[in-house]
Structures are given as structure tokens and as C-alpha cells.
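PROTOCOL LOG
Step 1. Enter all chains and additional molecules of the complex.
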Amino acid sequence: MSLPPVINLFSKLALVDDHWAPKIVARMNTYHFKVVKLQGAFVWHRHAETDETFIVLEGSTRIEFRSGTVELLQGEMIVVPQGVEHRPMAEAECSVLLVEPSGTVNTGDAPGGLTAPDGVWI
Amino acid sequence: MSLPPVINLFSKLALVDDHWAPKIVARMNTYHFKVVKLQGAFVWHRHAETDETFIVLEGSTRIEFRSGTVELLQGEMIVVPQGVEHRPMAEAECSVLLVEPSGTVNTGDAPGGLTAPDGVWI
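Step 2. Run joint prediction.
Step 3. Record the structure below.
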């Protein structure tokens, strides 16, 4: 067996030159780990089929829910429950590791200009 | 809806006072995120049913495979493939975030003195 690859998350982030477009860095069973840089306001959306995990690698971001807003700092994580509307918003650039099932589209039920192609590895 | 909790991984780690005993910090669908501190040598084992993800939060660890050894530093991750024998080994204490299906036992197919109770939250 060849050795499984070691993935340096910060080296992967250094290759990301856009915002809101998650890039896959690893697969675990039917799930993907994705790095993404956030800046500005995203769109309100929900993922009807799955929870979605955000882990902040650098910077900070807020995530708005209809019932209130949370702030996530470096080293913090949150699991957005399946079906719950949310909107990430980062005043300064924030780097995040997402964990979600493969095939999860970034804008969920709200496709539009910020919808990123799924399945892009970096 | 109440807001989803923000989980500070380093605050959780500060509560961990043992080694090799993963503690659950979050659930995503049927998966758990667990913090664990490694020190010394673990046992050779495999997980017959699942891949297993290691993300290094602090320190460094090696993971031995039958075909060679990888070293993981802070900010690096690896997905150990389903069914592949491995043995973590950390010369100094290393803090890790594990991602794996709920019910995954730390020692896999090699139960013994280092087998930790499953389902413990912190």
C-alpha cells in the first residue's frame, strides 16, 4: 500500500486565490474536507439533506441564523444543522475548513452568482 | 431555533487530562468530532468499517503503517483508509481532532488496555 498523503491545510490555503469557492483537500468515506476563504457577505441558504461543519483556520467569521448570530474565531468550530438557514459573513478574509458530504453545493437551496462548482480539488 | 453551539477546540483540549481517550465535542449527521491527546506509542489496529481522519491541533505525531511512517505537524491532516493497519506514536504530547463515524472505537480490531469508552462527550 502506498502511504496516505499528509495534507498541510495552510499550504493548501496558500493556493486559494478566490472567495466562497470551496476546494476539496481530502475524502473520508463519503465526506469531503474543503478549504475555503470567506470575505464579505454570502447568501442566505440551507442544506436540506445534511449538517455542515465549519472549522476556522485563520481569522474570524460570523454566521447569521434567523434566530441570531454567532461569531467564530480561529480554533473554533460549529455544526450548522440540516435544513437551518444561515449566512456566513466575514468582514476581513477568513480561512475555513468545511466538512460535509461529497456533492454538497455551497449555496444549498439558493443557487446564484456565488454558487461554486462542486468537486474541485486543490 | 436555539443557536448551534460554538465549540472552541483549545478550550475543550484544556479539559482533557489523559492520553489516547477521545472525547466527543460535536456531532455532524452520523459522525463525531473528537479531541484527544496522544503521548507515547498506541497499539497497531485497523478500523474494518471506516476511514478515520486525524487533524493535528498542537504538537506533532507520527503514524506508522506497515509500509512506512508519516509525520504530521500542527495544521496537517491525514485520512487513514478503511481497513489499513496503523499505529500512532507521539514522542511529546500531541493534540488531535479526530473525525469518524459515531461508534468508532479507538483501538479498532485490537481491544485491550488502551481501549477507551465510546460516547464520552467533553
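Step 4. Note key features.
The first strand of chain B starts at residue 7 and ends at 8.
Strands of chain B lie at 7-8, 23-28, 31-41, 52-58, 61-65, 68-72, 76-80, 86-101.
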